[in-house]
Backbone:
């Protein structure tokens, strides 16, 4: 029995018992998903997928990668993306496809021709099930990447401490990716608030090594290019000892033991700048 005969048998069987197969398929998948998806939504998804499969088989193809299955692949990718966003597992998602094999098995294992058609259709569904897993994993990676970016944004706040003074309280490790976010947020805040002083507080940074120091210096240089004076605060005794032991040089960048000391110094400079501006107007 050739491929054409197999597809004809599959189309005839799927068409003749469409409602029965769809009902069984939805019921089986619904049990796997344990009621976490409404039967109405599940019935709609599986109904669209069932019709797409029928159209592809009616074209005489059993190649999941063929043009005839383009619509089927699109529907499965969308289904997988929805499942990933809804918190289902890859197994839950793939089972939505594999369950159709269980539904069809009793009707396509009666004679040799039916068995051959069923085996070919099973291989087709296996390929489509793998497609759902790949689409699911890609979506989960996108979600995780997006969440990581959001957490990075939240972990690097830039706050206005006073008129003309902004602060960057750093907590945790400072790496290249985070340094870039700090730079962008600091520079934008300097522009938005028309500030001339920036305090980078490292009280919450557990250790300062050569790499962390380089990231701090890059941030300071970027802020200075915007015309802001920068101070690094939060230099605890153990941090100071580490910096000296490593031979790290902050050059002419002012440092303070605490944020309050740095803020006090910045406010003095802001006041002096204001006095100079007034004198310049007289």
Residues:
């Amino acid at each position: 029995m050739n491929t054409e005969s197999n597809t004809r048998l599959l189309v005839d069987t799927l068409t003749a018992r469409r409602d029965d197969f769809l009902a069984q398929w939805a019921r089986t998948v619904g049990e796997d998903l344990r009621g976490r998806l409404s039967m109405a939504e599940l019935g709609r998804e599986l109904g669209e997928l069932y019709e797409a499969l029928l159209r592809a088989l009616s074209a005489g193809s059993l190649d999941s990668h063929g043009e005839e299955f383009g619509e089927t692949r699109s529907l499965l990718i969308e289904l997988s993306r929805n499942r990933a966003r809804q918190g289902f597992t890859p197994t839950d998602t793939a089972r939505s496809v594999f369950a159709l094999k269980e539904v069809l098995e009793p009707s396509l294992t009666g004679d040799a021709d039916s068995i051959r058609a069923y085996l070919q259709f099973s291989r087709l569904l296996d390929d489509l099930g793998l497609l759902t897993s790949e689409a699911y994993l890609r979506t989960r990676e996108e979600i995780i990447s997006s969440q990581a970016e959001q957490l990075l944004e939240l972990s690097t706040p830039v706050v206005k401490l006073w008129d003309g003074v902004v602060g960057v309280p750093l907590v945790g490790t400072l790496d290249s990716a985070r340094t870039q976010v700090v730079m962008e947020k600091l520079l934008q805040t300097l522009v938005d608030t028309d500030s001339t002083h920036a305090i980078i507080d490292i009280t919450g940074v557990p250790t300062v090594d050569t790499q962390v120091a380089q990231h701090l210096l890059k941030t300071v240089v970027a802020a200075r290019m915007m015309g802001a004076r920068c101070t690094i605060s939060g230099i605890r005794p153990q941090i100071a000892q580490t910096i000296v032991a490593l031979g790290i040089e902050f050059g002419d960048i002012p440092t303070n033991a605490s944020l309050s000391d740095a803020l006090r110094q910045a406010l003095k400079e802001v006041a002096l700048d204001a006095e100079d501006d007034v004198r310049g107007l007289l």
User: Anything to note?
Assistant: The longest strand covers residues 197-204.
